[in-house]
Design brief:
Elements (H helix, E strand, L loop, with lengths): L1 H12 L6 H24 L13 H19 L1 E3 L2 E3 L1 H18 L3 H22 L3 E13 L4 H10 L2 E11 L4 E13 L9
Antiparallel strand pairs: 1-2, 3-5, 4-5
Helix pairs in contact: 1-2, 1-4, 1-5, 2-3, 2-4, 3-4, 4-5
């Protein structure tokens, strides 16, 4: 629970949905299921004894992994070209693994996984801001119906953006038109800061 809470705290600081409480509960629940799985296996007796009910300790662990997949899928949001929540979904998955490691008695493995997870979330987040990468956005411009759309296209091209798709809507009642650009930009740093330029 403590190790999962550490990862969750980092997610909470960045305003993600699966934060401190969620990761704590995921990690603790996974540890609980691993302890139950190991206890059931030990309490059913020697696996060589044919008179005793046999159990497979890997079954409950496999179901934990499947169940965590559903939680992770719920954290992923798609908005146009942008997909948010993949890192949070990966944190949920790792928190479950950390809990399972601790529940199985591999405390050193759980601590090492926690340290690596925090390094990837904190240090690599800063490293990603140092190199340029592609980003995809939807850009809308509303103008009067008699405005020249080709001039808007030239302005967008001048800012080194690549137009992937262009859609145009006309509103005859309001006498305006809206150009909807799907664009790709190659940028270093926080991409959304470009919208203020």
């Amino acid at each position: 629970a403590f190790l999962g809470a550490i990862i969750g705290f980092e997610r909470d600081i960045h305003g993600r949905a699966a934060g401190l409480r969620t990761n704590l509960l995921i990690s603790m629940g996974s540890a609980l299921y691993m302890i139950i799985s190991a206890t059931l296996f030990l309490s059913t007796g020697d696996a060589c004894d044919t008179d005793v009910l046999r159990s497979d300790p890997g079954r409950i662990a496999a179901q934990v992994v499947t169940g965590i997949g559903f939680l992770g899928a719920g954290a992923i949001i798609k908005n146009g070209f942008t997909i948010r929540g993949l890192t949070t979904a990966a944190c949920i998955w790792v928190s479950a693994g950390i809990g399972m490691s601790a529940g199985a008695g591999y405390f050193e493995l759980a601590v090492v996984a926690t340290v690596f997870s925090l390094c990837s979330l904190i240090l690599l987040n800063n490293l990603e801001k140092l190199f340029a990468k592609d980003a995809y956005r939807i850009f809308e411009v509303t103008m009067s119906s008699d405005a020249d759309l080709s001039q808007v296209i030239d302005i967008v091209k001048r800012t080194n953006l690549k137009i992937l798709y262009l859609d145009k809507k006309k509103d005859y009642e309001k006498k305006n038109q809206t150009a909807i650009f799907s664009i790709r930009l190659h940028h270093k740093g926080v991409t959304d800061k470009i919208s203020h330029i």
